[in-house]
Design a protein that fits this description.
With 660 residues, the protein is mostly beta strands. It has five helices and 44 strands.
Length: 660
């Protein structure tokens, strides 16, 4: 029997939030003037990489420079105690103001204390202590018995609320103008550093993550029959955690982003309420760098209502669009991510008012929701210049990788005038590979016209940022291979590791037993050997949705196979609609039987035999006001995930009921 891991999340019972404040007595948010250092002090320069916005200029409330501004910086130093826990040590002061180096890079100099143990520095930006109620030193840093609090205890308590800023549109994050906006709290931390008087440790690097998500709306090129008027975002949270939980942070070979939300205790939102943002200039084709919001979990009523004038209409009408990707799955709002609602087509007028649009399904509009993380780069920094790449280590399966793959892409950036790819070294023999005729190659777009070339080790290149991509040949045999790729910019050197392993890529395939001829579903379940599941017809990617009959109890079956066959399959349910008005019936999908790499998954809302490994699923449909508005489609999505140890694949299957 296959072991199945269930990763359900509780989407209900959120309580009122309690703000936790910084102590004014021990956090320094203004730089100290230059002066002589004490015997136990040393200056450390920190190279900061701030996430870029990744978007071309258009109509914005604030600029990239304003979004990146860090006028307020707080630094905390932590050490390990006797129990190997990280605990608060002291708060280093700043030496002068942050200096911009361009390309989303800053330098900050702190006055660190010389210690005979390793320290870790944590940076919190744009949290002015004047906005907080002061707590006594012992309440935040000390447990009241003379013991310093742990790093986790302190960082968990650092929250930020809309109540801490001057609010903007209808109570949202203030982005009124370039001179009237709320700065963005960010967080970052260093590795472990030993600060010694005579050591050469004078500089370190750090990446910062914003605590907010950004939402943009834009018209696609060629959409000329619609004039954007407003955007209202519904059901967002009022507060957030400044620092993400470590469990939600993905640090993949020095590339950092989050894959889950981190919520304060008791976080709240005004149900069915929205925050409105108006277009400042008539005829604008986008709203960008305007809508910022705290993280929140995936929720069916997390949506935007877009207002605009269609065709020859004389007044705006409104269109609801949910936070769903191209695969129709619900999206959470993640910190440091950008969510762009790209309007590809408007074919008719919308609803007469925002409330009706919010309570109805989308009509007459085709919108693509794109999301990506504004990841930072991994940095080599010498105190003056930097060289950065997306991450330091790349692991691949045995298959061929080329231009159509995604995980083999990387970015290079530097403030040196030029850079070069010096060599590719075999990790086993430590000898140069026969570049460019060996198993790993590097391509990049030199002229931004999609003319991809292989960097010549005998040339220097000035294109920055540079978009690069690995091409890998198929690995045959059972021996892994790896290569060191050396990039150089001035005095800076960056070794990147590419490894390829003798394993096939992970996969998840859905099969349709309902398509088998001359048999019944019951016969399949009772008599069919699970080893035959791979012979069932595959369900095409575009058809991974199952419509449930309106108000009728029924049974639907689904075959699932995966690779590696002996891997644990993670199964998670994304939430269904939760407005009480739409409650109709509940359903419980279950695994009927599981073997390595394959299993029957079935949904049966009627009472039946209780099977172990239950997966809860609730489906709702409209049961009132049917004549006053269209039915809203309700759905629940089951997400399957499997990994081969190096790569992960996720596949979603949606159950839905549109009230018809």
């Amino acid at each position: 029997m296959r072991k199945i891991k269930n990763s359900w999340q509780n989407w209900t019972s959120l309580f009122a939030i309690m703000l936790v404040m910084f102590a004014c007595t021990d956090i320094v948010d203004t730089p100290t003037p230059p002066g002589p250092l004490g015997e136990d002090e040393k200056e450390i320069t920190i190279a900061l990489s701030i996430p870029e916005t990744s978007l071309a200029s258009s109509l914005r409330s604030i600029s990239d420079a304003a979004e990146e501004a860090i006028p307020v910086i707080n630094v905390l130093a932590f050490r390990r105690n006797a129990g190997n826990e990280l605990v608060y040590d002291y708060s280093p002061s700043l030496r002068g103001a942050p200096a911009s180096k361009g390309n989303h890079m800053y330098t900050v100099t702190i006055v660190a204390r010389v210690k005979d143990y390793e320290q870790q520095f944590v940076m919190i930006t744009n949290v002015d202590t004047a906005t907080y109620t002061a707590l006594r030193y012992s309440e935040l840093w000390n447990d009241g018995q003379g013991n310093p609090r742990t790093k986790n205890d302190i960082l968990t308590k650092l929250t930020f609320s809309l109540d801490n800023i001057k609010k903007g549109a209808e109570g949202g994050w203030n982005t009124n103008s370039e001179t009237d906006y709320a700065k963005f709290p960010m967080w970052g931390e260093s590795g472990f550093v030993r600060v010694e008087r005579e050591s050469s440790t004078n500089s370190i690097s750090m990446r910062l993550l914003r605590m907010l998500a950004k939402v943009n709306v834009e018209l696609a090129s060629g959409v000329n029959n619609f004039k954007l008027n407003s955007v209202r975002i519904y059901n967002t949270y009022k507060s957030g955690r400044i620092v993400p939980d470590a469990a939600n942070l993905v640090v993949e070979n020095n590339s950092m982003h989050v894959n889950k939300v981190t919520l304060p205790a008791g976080v709240t939102f005004d149900k069915d309420q929205g925050l409105r943002y108006n277009v400042a200039v008539a005829g604008a084709t986008s709203i960008k760098n305007t809508i910022y919001t705290f993280e929140r979990d995936a929720y069916e009523n997390l949506c935007v209502v877009i207002g605009g004038v269609y065709g020859t209409d004389t007044s705006p009408t409104y269109y609801r669009v949910d936070f769903r990707g191209s695969d129709k799955q619900l999206m959470p709002l993640l910190r440091n991510y950008v969510y762009t609602f790209k309007i590809n087509n408007v074919s008719g007028s919308g609803y007469p008012d925002e409330g009706t649009a919010y309570e109805s399904r989308a009509v007459n509009v085709d919108v693509e929701v794109l999301s990506w993380s504004d990841d930072n780069l991994d940095i080599v920094f010498d105190g003056t210049n930097y060289l950065s790449l997306t991450k330091k280590n790349y692991d691949f399966s045995r298959k061929t990788y080329g231009v159509n793959d995604i995980i083999n892409r990387l970015n290079l950036d530097t403030d040196v005038s030029d850079w070069s790819l010096d060599s590719i070294i075999d990790a086993t023999t430590r000898r140069p590979l026969n570049y460019p005729n060996d198993w790993v190659k590097v391509y990049f777009n030199e002229d931004n016209n999609h003319n991809r070339i292989m960097p010549d080790p005998n040339r220097k290149y000035t294109t920055t940022p540079a978009n690069l991509q690995f091409y890998l040949d198929t690995l045959t045999g059972d021996v892994q291979r790896a290569a060191y790729i050396l990039f150089t910019a001035g005095r800076l050197h960056y070794y990147l590791v590419v490894a390829q392993y003798p394993v096939d890529p992970p996969s998840i395939v859905f099969h349709d037993p309902n398509s088998l001829p001359n048999t019944t579903i019951e016969d399949i379940i009772k008599n069919m050997d699970l080893s035959a599941i791979n012979s069932m017809p595959k369900i095409p990617e575009e058809n991974l949705r199952l419509k449930l009959p309106y108000g009728v109890s029924t049974t639907r079956f689904l075959g699932v196979s995966w690779f590696p066959a002996n891997a644990d399959v993670e199964i998670a349910e994304l939430p269904s609609y939760t407005t009480a008005e739409y409650l109709a019936y509940s359903a419980t999908p279950r695994f009927r039987d599981i073997q390595e790499g394959k299993g029957y998954f079935y949904w049966n809302p009627a009472t039946g035999v209780e099977i172990p490994a239950n997966i809860g699923l609730t489906i709702y449909r409209v049961v009132s006001n049917e004549n006053s508005r269209p039915a809203v489609r309700k759905s629940s999505i089951i997400r399957f995930s499997v990994s081969n140890g190096y790569e992960e694949v996720r596949r979603d299957f949606e159950f839905y009921d549109d009230g018809n």
